């Protein structure tokens, strides 16, 4: 049973039913268009819709680990050269969903994905798609900076070497460090071990490393949660710069961060599905312009979460 269509048009003032199968306002593809823009009652008119191409369209994506569902029936679009934030309480499947976009869940033997994710209108999970190439085009930055125990320089030439890119390594190193706003701090010590850098510098190095293989999309899973406020501010500034050239999806537990950096925000939750069953699955509650999600969300659950009443 699919109730999303019926809940999509609910006015904001009506209580949202929480029964099985309800996801209040997910994006559904419309025939003939690459993605459907928000049409939920109360949604701000989405003027940017015509400016941004869709990079990913997820349709009814569910992920199970073994027989346990982690995330159920998520449909949404990710737009080019925007920052999309995934927020929601711990365990609601944000990291699981993020990993679907570059097929890193493939590396977890128990993970099983159903539904479809199109990347530029091509099924990302089609048999002839090379998962290694997917991960080159769709890079990832993790919660804890994870530079290789090598020099700064070698961290940055690793990807191009593995991918047999015919490039000038010195140039790649400088360009990626400049793009990651780290060049001025490290240009005199490129042969030093990456571990000699501060945590915030290591995270910018990891972002620089992701850029060396010329990706289109960067997935970031709580990239600032191990960093102090100054290092966090550096990364946020950097994201705003990178947005001009890259599509970014960030998972963050920090709502102020989502509000500061993202263009669009998707709110997920994990709810008990029924009185007789205390299993929780992650669901998308709603996605919309960040300003709308934080000032006038369509769903009471979003409002409760962002105002700190829940989670
Ligand atoms: N590798 C895994 N194996 C089994 N279960 C997992 C794995 N990763 C995540 N889960 C489960 O999937 C659910 C969603 O987790 P996760 O995606 O990490 O949520 P979030 O990032 O929102 O905190 C949780 O119940 C978690 O325990
Ligand atoms: Mg997570």
Describe this structure in words.
This protein is α/β, with parallel strands linked by helices. The protein has a single domain, classed as 3-Layer(aba) Sandwich (Rossmann fold), CATH 3.40.50. It has helices at 4-8, 94-100, 131-137, 152-162, 169-179, 183-186, 199-211, 229-242, 255-261, 290-295, 300-306; strands at residues 54-65, 68-79, 83-87, 111-119, 122-123, 138-141, 217-221, 247-251, 264-274, 277-289. It has a six-stranded mixed beta sheet, sandwiched between helices. It has a four-stranded antiparallel beta sheet with strand order 2-1-4-5, covered by helices on one side. Strand 7 (217-221), helix 8 (229-242) and strand 8 form a beta-alpha-beta unit. Helix 4 runs parallel beside helix 7 (199-211) and helix 7 packs parallel to helix 8 (229-242). The longest helix is centred in the C-terminal third of the chain and has 14 residues, at 229-242. The protein is globular and about 60 Å long. Bound molecules: adenosine-5'-diphosphate and magnesium ion. Residues 65, 70, 90-96, 108, 110, 282 line the site of adenosine-5'-diphosphate (ADP).
């Amino acid at each position: 049973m699919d109730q999303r269509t019926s809940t999509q048009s609910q006015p904001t003032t009506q209580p949202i039913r929480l029964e099985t199968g309800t996801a209040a306002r997910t994006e559904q593809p419309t025939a003939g268009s690459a993605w459907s823009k928000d049409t939920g009652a109360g949604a701000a008119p989405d003027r940017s819709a015509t400016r941004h191409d869709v990079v990913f369209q997820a349709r009814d994506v569910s992920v199970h680990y073994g027989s346990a569902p982690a995330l159920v029936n998520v449909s949404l679009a990710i737009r080019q050269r925007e920052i999309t934030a995934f927020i929601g309480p711990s365990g609601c499947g944000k990291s699981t969903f993020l990993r679907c976009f570059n097929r890193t869940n493939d590396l977890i033997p128990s993970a099983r994905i159903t539904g479809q994710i199109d990347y530029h209108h091509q099924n990302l999970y089609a048999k002839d798609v090379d998962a290694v190439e997917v991960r080159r085009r769709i890079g990832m930055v993790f919660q804890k900076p994870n530079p290789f125990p090598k020099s700064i320089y070698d961290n940055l030439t690793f990807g191009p070497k593995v991918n047999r890119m015919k490039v000038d390594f010195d140039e790649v190193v400088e360009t990626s460090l400049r793009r990651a706003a780290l060049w001025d701090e490290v240009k005199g010590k490129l042969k030093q071990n990456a571990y000699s850098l501060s945590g915030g510098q290591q995270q910018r190095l990891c972002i620089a490393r992701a850029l060396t293989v010329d990706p289109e999309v960067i997935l970031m899973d709580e990239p600032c949660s191990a960093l102090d406020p100054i290092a966090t501010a550096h990364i946020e500034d950097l994201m705003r710069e990178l947005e001009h050239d890259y599509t970014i999806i960030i998972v963050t537990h920090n709502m102020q961060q989502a509000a500061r950096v993202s263009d669009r925000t998707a709110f997920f939750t994990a709810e008990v599905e029924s009185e007789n069953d205390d299993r929780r699955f992650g669901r998308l509650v709603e996605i919309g312009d960040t300003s709308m999600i934080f000032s006038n969300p369509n769903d009471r659950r979003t409002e409760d979460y962002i105002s700190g009443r829940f989670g």
